[in-house]
Amino acid sequence: MPRSVNHVASRARRKNLMKLAKGYFGRRKNVWTVAKNAIEKGMLYAYSGRKQKKRNFRSLWITRINAGARLHGMSYSQFMGLVHKSGIELNRKVLADLAMNHPEAFKAVVDSVKK
Q1: Mean of the per-residue pLDDT values of the chain
Q2: CA angle, corner 105, sides to 63 and 77, nearest 5?
Q3: Residue 30 contacts by C-beta under 8 Å, 6 or more apart in sequence?
Q4: How far is CA 115 from CA 20, 83, 85, 86, in A?
Q5: Which of 45, 61, 86, 95 has the largest CB neighbor count within 10 A?
Q6: pLDDT digits (tens, 9 = 90+) for 33-87
Q7: Closest Cα to residue 75, out of 65, 87, 61?
Q8: In 3-state terms, what secondary structure has residue 6?
Q9: What is the pLDDT of residues 26-45, one digit of tens each?
């Protein structure tokens, strides 16, 4: 009895992966083995990139809060220590937005923390 191979399913699988390789440079976009490796690597980078994005934003927020706090005579660590001690439940994202876009509101937070 001859061997039965499901070409329809394997072709569909390859077709889906080749769609993901669209826009790649050189053989990465049209040679199956090269494209498969490039896509696997790209997926790994995408996964780790989603984690790095969170780190990068947190460090950006910390930098902005630090700059805003130093305008009012405090360091970042002093400011955040007093924020937690005073029971203000604003996260770094909100504090950074206040420091950048609403300096008068950030000043009000700093004044309430200093008291």
Answers
A1: 96
A2: 35
A3: 18, 21
A4: 57, 11, 11, 9
A5: 95
A6: 999 999 999 999 999 999 999 999 999 999 999 999 999 999 999 999 999 999 9
A7: 65
A8: coil
A9: 999 999 999 999 999 999 99
